[in-house]
Amino acid sequence: MLTEALTTDPACDTGTKLFRADGVPVEWRISDGYVPYPEALEAMKARAAAVADGTASEQVWLLEHPPLYTAGTSAAPADLLSPNRFPVYDAGRGGQYTYHGPGQRVVYVMLDLRQRGRDVRCLVQGLEGLIIDTLAAFNIRGERRDGRIGVWVARPDKGPGREEKVAAIGVRVSRWVTFHGIAINVSPTLSHFDGIVPCGISDQGVTSFEDLGQLASMTEVDAALRAAFERRFGPTADLRREALVSAA
Prior knowledge:
Elements: H1 10-14, E1 26-34, H2 37-53, E2 59-64, E3 68-71, E4 88-90, E5 97-100, E6 104-110, H3 120-136, E7 143-145, E8 148-154, E9 163-174, E10 177-185, E11 205-206, H4 218-233, E12 236-238, E13 242-243
Parallel strand pairs: 1-2, 1-12, 1-13, 3-4, 9-11
Antiparallel strand pairs: 2-6, 3-5, 6-10, 7-8, 8-9, 9-10
Helix pairs in contact: 3-4
């Protein structure tokens, strides 16, 4: 996960840099139920490798996980405040600790940057823009913050300068193919974040659609995500929706 300040590039926001020149659509996959984290991680790795080898198409995978914490390569042990609360997994991405669980829409992106400008900073900016567009569909104003990856919401009702994170971004790139992605807090149990210092940031909070007074179903959020993705990354194609047994 990138942690330094990003310099915004207009071409990344308009899509001219992130679209594939050949117009090949990205496979759009949605899994019902809670997908175990180890299963998702192995599936992402396999798909990313296949994309790099030219034997599979790009894919965006939408899912939910059972409650768990993940540790990035920069995770500080002191930031895991409740080590026995939920399972903890090494994510294999950059960044620090994060939480995943029911009510949070996780979006894993396996995109071929060889076809999309070979620019990781542009990818992250595009993912931030995707989140901001999705929030706007529900009258939530999401904002970027210099030096802090993710999307933030101002909370003046909680004090001067107060802001809270509504979505996290963590990506890894191997052979110019991405995996991992974004996590948007729709209606998770926010107290579950108390077991970690999310992304190593202790002076600001975490929020969600529900916490901000915007009630939305996951189906509605998915539709807004897809529309925003297509504006910034290009066309998508349906994959049969999958039903998975809950592992919670």
